[in-house]
Amino acid sequence: MNTHETTAPAAPRQDARPSAAPAGPRLVAEARKEGVDAAVAAARRLITALLRSGDGTGADLDAVASQLDAVADRLTAGAPTVTDRLAEMWRGEGVTRHDPVTGPENALAPPLRLHGNEDRSVEGVVTLDLPYQGPPGHVHGGISALLLDHTLGVANHWGGPSGMTAELTLRYLRPTPLFEPLTVTGRQVSVDGSRIRTVGEISAGGRTCVTAEGLFINKQLPRPS
Amino acid sequence: MNTHETTAPAAPRQDARPSAAPAGPRLVAEARKEGVDAAVAAARRLITALLRSGDGTGADLDAVASQLDAVADRLTAGAPTVTDRLAEMWRGEGVTRHDPVTGPENALAPPLRLHGNEDRSVEGVVTLDLPYQGPPGHVHGGISALLLDHTLGVANHWGGPSGMTAELTLRYLRPTPLFEPLTVTGRQVSVDGSRIRTVGEISAGGRTCVTAEGLFINKQLPRPS
To answer: What range does the record give for the signal peptide (chains A, B) (predicted)?
Structure first.
C-alpha cells in the first residue's frame, strides 16, 4: 500500500466528547505559558515581525542575526540526539505538540486550534499574517492545503478510524484572505474497509474559499522508540 | 472565475534561459548574507533548534522567550504599515522574496531553491528537518502539498502562461523522508485557452514519493500599491 500518513493526534476521543456544548473539546495540544511553548510563541511573533519589517527600516538586522544564531547554537548544543528526540516526541501527549499546523512547539504552526463537534466534525478558527501569504494580501494555496490535510487527519481521529493520506484534492473557489478569521472544518464521510473518505473546507465571512477531499488508508507508520 | 493565485515569481524568462548548462537559472530570489535575509536564516535555525531541544534540556526557555519577544517588539515598532509593506513586497524583485516556500525573507520557507531546465521543467533539491514533520521521521503531507503547489506555479512562470490555482490533486505514493535530499520538480503540460495544466513530484533517492496535478486559470490578483 503506497500511502503517506498525516500526522494527527491520538485524541482522547471517549473521555472528551462533549455532552451539549456548542464547541467541543480541544483536539490539539494546549500551549503552555512557559518553557518551550513560550519561546516558540515568541519565535512566531519574530517571524512575522521580520516579514513586516523587511530590510528598509534601518534596524540592525546583522545584530539580530548574531543574537538568534547564538540562541540556536546554545539550544542545539544542549539538545538530545535526533533519535532520542523523535522517540520523546512520539510518546504520549507529545504527538500533538510538534506538527506544523497545530503544534505549540513548532513555530511554523499558526497554530490552528481544532475542536471536536457533536456531529463528529472538527473545527477551528485562525487568522493568518504575512508568513502565510501567496498572492497579494491572500493566503498561499499550499498553506490552505497544509491546513486542510492536517484538519482532515484530525477529523479522522475524532470521527472514526484514521490513517495515512493516499490522495488529496483541493478546489480553490475564491482567494482566501490574510488578516481575517478563517474557519477550517473537517468531517469523515465514509469508511469502506481500509478506505476512509474525509472532506473539509476553509471559509471566510461565511463564504467557502477552499474545499478538500481526502482518501485515507487505515494504517500508520511505526512510532520511533 | 473562482480561483486562487499561486505565488510565483516574475521570473526573468527571456534573459536567463541557459544555453546548455545542466542546471538552468535560479528562478527564485537569492538569499543575501546580510540584513533581513541573515536574520531570517538565523530564525530558521532557531525554529529547528527549539524543536530539537524541546522542554527537557534545562535550558532557560523563559529567558529565550523574553529575548525573542524583545527583538520582535523592536522590529514591529520600526516596521512600516502593512499597507506600505505589501506595496513594497510586490514591487519588482520583491515578489520572490517573501513566500513560505522559496522566500529568503520568510523563516517558514525551507527555503526551496528552484532552477529552470532547458526542457521547460523546474527543479530544486531540499532537505527538511523536524519543523516539517508529519508522521514519525517523515514529511507532513500538507508540507509536500505546499512545496508542490508553489513549484507548479513557478513552472508556469518558467514554461508559459501562469495563473491562479483552481484545483490541485496530490497522490501520496510512499512516505517522504526527513533528513534526506528531496528533489522537487514541476512542468507545464498543456494550455487550453485560459486553462493551464501543470504537474510535479517529490522524489527521494530516485523514487517518487508524491505527485501533483494542477489546473490553473490564467489570471492574477492585482498587486497592492
So the answer is: none
Q: How far separated are the first and last CA of chain B, in Å rounded?
A: 24
Are residues B209 and A4, on separate chains, in Cβ contact within 8 Å?
yes
Which residues between 38 and 67 in chain B have a beta carbon less than 8 angstroms from any beta carbon of chain A?
38-43, 45-59, 61-62, 64-67
Inspect the interface and report whether the beta carbons of A50 and B144 lie closer than 8 Å.
Answer: no
Contact of B80 with chain A, judged by CB distance below 8 Å, is answered with yes
Question: Would you kindly state where each structural domain of chain A is located, as residue ranges?
Answer: 35-217
Counting beta carbons within 10 angstroms of the beta carbon of residue A13, is it exposed (0 to 12), middle (13 to 18) or buried (19 or more)? middle
What is the rounded distance in angstroms from the CA atom of residue B141 to the CA atom of residue B132? Answer: 9
How many other C-beta atoms can be found within 10 angstroms of the C-beta atom of residue A43?
27
Residues near A92 by beta carbon (within 8 Å), at least 6 away in sequence = none
pLDDT digit string, tens, across residues A25-80: 888 888 999 999 999 999 999 999 999 999 988 899 999 999 999 999 999 999 99
* Radius of gyration (C-alpha) of chain A in whole angstroms: 19
Instruction: Please identify among residues 5-24 of chain B the ones whose CB lies closer than 8 Å to any CB of chain A.
Output: 5-7
* Chain A neighbors of B106, CB-CB under 8 A: 47, 51, 131
Cell digits for A60?
A: 540592525
For chain A, say whether B180 makes contact (Cβ under 8 Å).
no
DSSP B155-206: HHHHHS---EEEEEEEEE-SPPBSSSEEEEEEEEEEEETTEEEEEEEEEETT
Q: The cell 476521543 sits on which residue?
A: A13
Architecture category of domain B35-217 in CATH? Roll (3.10)
Q: E-strand spans in A40-194? A: 115-116, 121-127, 164-172, 181-192
Residues of B whose CB is below 8 A from A79: 49, 52-54, 57
Q: Chain B contact for A215, CB < 8 A?
A: no
Chain B nearest C-alpha distance from A77 (Å): 9
pLDDT, tens digit, for every residue of B132-186?
Answer: 999 999 999 999 999 999 999 999 999 889 999 999 999 999 999 999 999 999 9
> Is residue A195 within 8 Å of residue A141, measured between CB atoms?
no
